[in-house]
Queue: 2 jobs
Job 1
Amino acid sequence: MTGIFFVLEEAPELLTHDVHGKKAVATLASGAKTWRKGGGGIVLVAQDPNMTELGGSVTLRAQLRKNACALRTQTPGAAYQMGLPQDPSLLPATFKNGKLTQGLAYLSGIDRRAALMRWLYTEKPKYIARQPAAGQIDDLTMGWIEEYTSAKKDGREPRTGKPAAAGDEPRSTPGDVKAAIIDVLDDADGLALELGELLHLVLKRRVTAPPSEIHTQLKRLVKDGRVWLVGKDGGEAYALPEEILERLEAR
């Protein structure tokens, strides 16, 4: 079951971008092949889904040729690009009674069979936007969420009703966490450590505190001037001020 459905409107604006285009193409091409395993889905929306508009990615076009919805277009070549046996540029602008055919499209499935379809069309989209959402969490799921929240609040394990098992080790104090951070940075011998690496090394010292608590104490050390926040490859990194000053003096 799809957990996250990612819709990229005007996809060519990103896929052909001078700065972010290549990275976006690589990320989405990989996602088109692998995200479904974790319950993810991708929808690319393009006026003319040709190779240029897709950033030159054969992988993205291959995915489009498996599952696609093509509305009326002025480009006959779109039928080939989408792997459709019918040409969406030939879809009529009106029905026989003169009513507009907005949303009329060809739908292509994974077996390459195409079917005629029509989106749910409304003449007043702003009215729809102001209405309550049609989707909702069912009563069974809501009941479980309430049970889980209540159990955690009362210190019980959800579903069992038993008291939550206490850890074998006492929780580290803020002072213990700060000391561990200082020790890790001191062992780094003047090198700035990125946040992820710093958290990992602190946890390896068996500090019984969640990463969020370590991050909180790190911010306090920075505020007190005992740790310096420095840049490293465009990201955040941390080092001891005395170590940095010693390196500067050595130069």
Job 2
Amino acid sequence: MIKKMTFVFAPFALALVLGACSDNEEPAANEEAAAPETEQTEETEEGTEDAAPAESALELPEEDAVVAVVNGEEIQGKVYNSVARQFESTLLSQGQDPSTEENLQLIEDEAMSVIIGNAVLLQDAKEKGHEADEAVVEERMEELKANFEDEDAMNEALAETGFTLEEMEEQLREQLVYESYMENEIDAPEVTDEEVQAAYDQFAESSEEEAPAFEEMEPTIRQSLQEQNDQEATFARVEELREDAEIEVKL
């Protein structure tokens, strides 16, 4: 099952477009970071197929439908659909059936939580004066375009997501706002040496094979624990903001 909402702001359309790009280049690849959706390939009894996976069981709203209103800001169906499909893809990659009643409800709940959480965080960030560096936005747009053979390939991938290039640029801009907000507004505790050592000891005790040396694993463990702290601090901030927010779910 999907771990209870791992909240990380991401430009949803960007994940989908890059997923389509990676699928076109390497049909057998299943890259978690790209979060491919309907074009994700599946391993079958006969082998890997280039065709689309089994038909999705998700009941998705129209792309231009309003699925939620957060402090007066309308969130469109295509944003919700992007997140829901990413969760569906995650379940598939874990070997689970996303079409069960339990998982369908889980996907709906988690997708709605993510888009509402993103909305309240970004609203708070903008109220506190966080802005995107337009030079960095332009740089990231160029990096995005470089993932495709030509403009036609990029436009084709965009068309499949339902997002325009202008909307993609706005999502990149919002990600920069979010990054600035996280760096300056979210105060997560630093991981201690004792916590790193305890995590390593637990791993070493539970591992069936001999664990690598502590010095080798220490940076990875510390980073993972710090990310958990950051997540927990972000969850707490989202809950604070949601308590004071006017939220109407229309799905």
